[in-house]
Amino acid sequence: MSDEARRMAPPVLAGAGADAREGAREGAREGAFEPRLDRRGSSRVDPADVPEPEALRELGVLRDVDVHFARTAARLGGERDPHVLLALAVASRAPGAGHVCAELDAPTRLVRLEGRGAGAVRWPAAAAWCAALAASPLVATPDGAAAGLACPLVLDGTRLYLTRYWRHQRRLLDALRARAATVRDDVDEAVLRVGIDRLFRADGEPADARQVDAAATAVLRGLAVITGGPGTGKTWTVLRVLALLAEQRRACGEPMPRVALAAPTGKAAARLVESIAVGLPALRVDPEIAAAIPRGARTVHALLGWQPRTPTRFRHDAANPLPADVVVVDEASMVDLALMAKLVDAVAPGARLVVLGDRDQLASVEAGSILADVCGPAGEAPSPAFARRLGRATAPAASAEATSADATSAGATGADATCAD
Questions:
Q1: Mean pLDDT per 10-residue section of the chain, whose length is 421 residues
Q2: For residues 183 and 89, what is the distance between their CA atoms, to the nearest angstrom?
Q3: Of 6, 42, 45, 27, nearest to 88 (Cα)?
Q4: CA distance 24 to 8
């Protein structure tokens, strides 16, 4: 590693070290490592075929904290297999390298940026490595981890996780799936169509269909992810989303929605506020709706309620959710796995979550590329049922009214008119 790279490393190392210490404390709180039956047979692999963690530290592949974690966990768990010892160290290294897990069939990905010594490492064969881990009392299967088995590692195929990161990932996945499946039944589609016409199709200008679909999705569902490169109108679109949501509340005779705006850093939060201030004057809404749009934003840590005494635990969580009906997070590509999991936990079940960002830009410093993973492959279509509802909601208001009148007329004459669900 170059001198310049070493000077840049401390912030990452400090975060990774804190994660490792927190993981050790979690293990202690859960009763250390739960003893299990050692499933290994009598066959053994020559330890000389597996590199020692200390040797990889000398090559610059592992850090002191990785070696210490591996030795301590192995000692507490009575583990002597060199495969498992190496796996403990590699799993510890993964978050420090920006990865949620270590891929045992491609371990060189962990050291891609480490130049020195990366090509000199003779890694164990993935099959033998996974077999040794599957037999170790320090390694849980995904089912075992989900059931609460207290082990420092989780092996899922050839992917090896520190248990706390596996749990963050599983919790976030389940929460996002549940929110994405939530289709709101409190939306007045006629009001939504009129609002979209006014905010997206004013002056006869053709609307960007992607922006219209994104805005309608944010109103119709509990989760919306709006992604695009610089200048694609993400903030312009979300400003109109907030106006549409306020109009929905007013149409129902309810108070204006409580909106929380957040970004990963103070600078990003300031840019979000500036973009909203620039866009508000051009927004075609009345003063009551404009007043419902917040003029301030906070960092995600400030929004969740960072506490100095417990820096990895926030004041707001699933048991004490944020007092907000709509949570908007900008520059989401910079949010790491652990923070995103805690943020989604803190959003109330009935609230909307709108996530903005460029999936190809500004990766998080800590482990996880959450926005890119959530977006998935481009071009995936929504379900047929939601596509029909989205089509109704985004149709020009005059066209939708004509369609409704035609359907009513057809029903009155006994024709076979079917209403989309």
A1: 38 36 44 44 52 85 90 91 93 84 80 55 87 92 87 91 90 87 85 88 74 89 86 86 92 91 90 89 88 90 84 84 93 85 91 84 65 67 80 73 42 32 29
A2: 44
A3: 27
A4: 26
Burial class from Cβ neighbours inside 10 Å (0-12, 13-18, 19+) for residue 362 reads middle
| Joined tokens for residue 325 | 């009906």
Query: What tokens were used for 368?
Result: 């996880």
Sign of the CA dihedral 2, 4, 7, 11? negative
**Of 34, 27, 41, 33, nearest in space to 135 by CA:** 41
Contact 333, 361 (CB under 8 A): yes
Widest pairwise Cα distance in the chain: 86
**The pLDDT value given to residue 403:** 46
Q: What's the CA gap between 302 and 262, in Å, rounded?
A: 9
Q: Which two tokens stand for residue 128?
A: 């033998």
- The answer to whether 57 and 64 are in contact (CB under 8 A) is yes
Residue 136 and residue 77: Cα distance in Å, rounded? 9
3-class state of residue 122 by DSSP: coil
User: Do residues 241 and 218 make contact, with C-beta atoms less than 8 angstroms apart?
Assistant: yes
The reply to whether the predicted model has a pTM over 0.85 is: no
Question: Encoding tokens for residue 205?
Answer: 């200008």
Contact 260, 322 (CB under 8 A): yes
Q: Two tokens at 365?
A: 């410093």
Structure tokens belonging to residue 208 = 């960007």
CB count within 10 Å of CB 175 equals 20
